[in-house]
Amino acid sequence: MFPASANIIIIGGGVLGASAAFQLAKDGHQDIVLLDRGPLASGTTPFAAGQTAYLSVSPDRLPLTTYCLDFLENFADRTGYPIHFNQHGSLRIALTEAYLPELEAHQVAADQLGHELKFLTPEEAKELVPTLDVPDAKGIIFIARDGYVEPKSIAIGYASAARDLGVTIQTHTKVSNIEVTEGKVKAVHTNRGKIQTNHIVVAAGAWTRQLTQRFGLDMQVVPVRHQAYVTAPLVDVVPRQPIVRLIEPQIYVRPEAGGLLVGGYGYRPVSFDMDEFPNRFEISALEPDLIYYSRLHDAATTYFPALRQATVVHERRGLPTITPDAKYLVSKVTEIKGLIIAAGCQVGGIQSSPAIGRMVADLISGQDYFGLLSAFAADRFESVYSDAQLRDQCETVYGNLYLQPH
Ligand SMILES: Cc1cc2nc3c(=O)[nH]c(=O)nc-3n(C[C@H](O)[C@H](O)[C@H](O)COP(=O)(O)OP(=O)(O)OC[C@H]3O[C@@H](n4cnc5c(N)ncnc54)[C@H](O)[C@@H]3O)c2cc1C
Predict the structure, then answer these.
(1) Looking at this predicted complex, what is its ipTM?
(2) Cα–Cα distance between 200 and 12 in angstroms, integer?
(3) Is the CB of residue 263 below 6 angstroms from any atom belonging to ligand 1?
(4) Is the CB of 18 under 6 A from ligand 1?
(5) What is the rounded CA–CA span in Å between residue 30 and residue 216?
(6) Same domain, yes or no: 165 and 294
(7) CA pair distance 309, 235, nearest whole angstrom
(8) Fewer Cβ close by (within 10 Å): the C or N end of the chain?
(9) Among 345, 346, 359, residue to substitute to test ligand 1 (most atoms within 8 Å of Cβ)
(10) What is the pLDDT of residues 285-312, one digit of tens each?
């Protein structure tokens, strides 16, 4: 039966909304409804590469990133649902000396945590990843505890655990508007009826800004197309090889079904206004940007020559959300009591989902587990961007994601 009321409504059953539902239920909140316009995890989530990169050069971020690492390493214990975390490590490669300080900062972070990190020679890196060719790399680190997951399994795991804790899940339920009375949320309006509520969490991924514009807000978060591709099996790909991250060309490569999954940033950042799409648009219908794919492929071939002969068997793309300062947007909204936004994944929503869900729960439970909520608050932006400036700035952020200190 469709609920007439709920204490908390979460809009969006992607990895962020599902994590928030789980964490809220785990905190003991009751009467929670998770809504999605499609099936669960039908937005950008299923198209992700699912990779983690937990070592941060900012010491204040380490509690958050290590919380996520620990959660993913122990996902079945936390949620009751198993996932496969392919934890074969990552190589982070500086091709120029300019990025050596970043690698050294990672070493400091690893030492601080007591985690394994090794500097490798190009030859040692090639032993781990036989298809990699970076003889002139200036620095290569191996981070043992990075890895990748199947992204949809994470979202479904959270949602299943949330349901076990009493959360009601309503799919094929599209929110058209939010009712606000005297500055406080009152109800959501959907294609299946109205639900009265006290709290609304907007975790609508690419649609977050569009949805909040419906009720007069302009959240500083923009969807930007991100693309990757997967090749047919290649002879020298080792299933347990680490992820490779090349800093300057902003490319990542990991094994996938015997072939290579290749993605990258800066090859042609394009943001979107979701009103440009038809009402029934789905992420799976997102058009490819062939120029982006071709530039990415040419660049990746320089470091993975085997890609030259490879057949592309699968393309992945979606609309992750970017903010003008490359930080998450996990926040209450001053103008509307009871409203919370969870967006701005910076193409890292799978790996950061445990912490983002935790912070959403903190906003309702009145805690600040990581002490970072002010850094991710909606009112942190001093500049008020025009629409064009906002999109331009978010495209720039996206186009330089690997070039910023991580
Ligand atoms: C090619 C690619 C590679 C990536 N690689 C990685 C990676 O290696 N590691 C990583 O951590 N991240 C990666 N990402 C990013 C990751 O996919 C995102 O950060 C994450 O999926 C965002 O999740 P979300 O819940 O915010 O959005 P979504 O998954 O899009 O979920 C939002 C949900 O809201 C629903 N919704 C929207 N509007 C409404 C409405 N009005 N009513 C009801 N429901 C609504 C949608 O149907 C959707 O299911 C990658 C992304 C891409 C595209």
Answers:
(1) 0.99
(2) 11
(3) yes
(4) no
(5) 29
(6) no
(7) 11
(8) N
(9) 345
(10) 999 999 999 999 999 999 999 999 999 9
